[in-house]
Write a structure and sequence with these properties.
The protein contains six helices and eleven strands. The chain is of the alpha+beta class. The protein has one domain: Roll (T-fold), CATH 3.10.520. Strand 9 (221-226) and strand 10 (229-234) form a beta hairpin. The protein is globular. The termini are far apart. The model has no long low-confidence stretch (mean pLDDT 89).
Length: 244
């Protein structure tokens, strides 16, 4: 089993008033923050058990239908497929990518549902380039681009609410990208759809191609950095921090 890469950026993740913990199962490496009074070792175990179950459902389905793992375009799944599998298939079909493009966002969504069932309404779930946020306050999120002049300084400010914030890059990380985008970041109230859309935008090959793709998507906001140019849509606008 492949060991997840070290998430060096997590040293910047210190939301005030929240307690955080990591859960690692196979390739899934989650960082989760909840209000300090909500944390307990039992919560950590419950999240780990949920993550194991979600991964088992995806892996079992992929062994039976290999194309679910390998397809770069949408596929249909049976009505009796696991809920997480059906959600991935549904959302990838909205922007024309393969179902595994939404796996991190789907895991975040169902972990969030578990937290809700446990009575936790505010949380941050970070899973690689994908974050699911439920907060009553604004959240400032750093955006890593691989560009030394911007890293540690470029951020986006999210309004209160429940959001999926996903990023894809051909320069950073191990995920497959068919484009040459430094960073593509998407904001949506649906974390699975934002994950799929980030992959779709990450496959852009030029600023003009990125602009066309951005216009096609039904998202609250998007930001693409390609060839030194920003393509921006909706409410996701860059914020330059004064200090790293």
């Amino acid at each position: 089993m492949v060991r997840p890469e070290k998430r060096f950026y997590r040293r910047f993740q210190k939301p005030k008033g929240f307690a955080s913990f990591e859960v690692i199962v196979g390739e899934s490496d989650l960082w989760i923050a909840v209000p300090q009074g909500e944390y307990s070792p039992a919560l950590e175990r419950a999240v780990e058990e949920t993550l194991i179950s979600l991964r088992s459902q995806i892996e079992a389905y992929g062994k039976r239908r290999r194309e679910f793992f390998t397809s770069l375009t949408p596929i249909e799944v049976e009505p009796l497929a696991p809920r997480i599998v059906k959600k991935m298939a549904l959302e990838c079909g909205r922007c024309g990518v393969g179902p595994m493009a939404g796996v991190a966002g789907a895991i975040n969504l169902f972990i969030g549902k578990k937290l809700e069932k446990l009575g936790i309404d505010e949380f941050i779930i970070e899973n690689g380039g994908d974050t699911y946020i439920s907060r009553e306050a604004e959240t400032v999120s750093l955006i890593l681009t691989g560009e030394p002049r911007l890293d540690g300084k470029l951020a986006v400010c999210l309004p209160p609410g429940r959001w999926g914030l996903s990023s894809s890059s051909s320069k950073i990380g191990h995920s497959l990208s068919l484009g040459r985008v430094q960073i593509a970041t998407v904001l949506s109230c649906n974390p699975v759809y934002s994950d799929c859309c980030a992959t779709y935008l990450g496959n852009s090959t030029s600023p003009e191609n990125a602009l066309r793709r951005v216009k096609e998507l039904e998202v609250e906001g998007a930001l693409v950095l390609i060839d030194g140019k920003f393509v921006i849509k909706g409410n996701l606008k860059p914020v330059l921090l004064k200090s790293a």
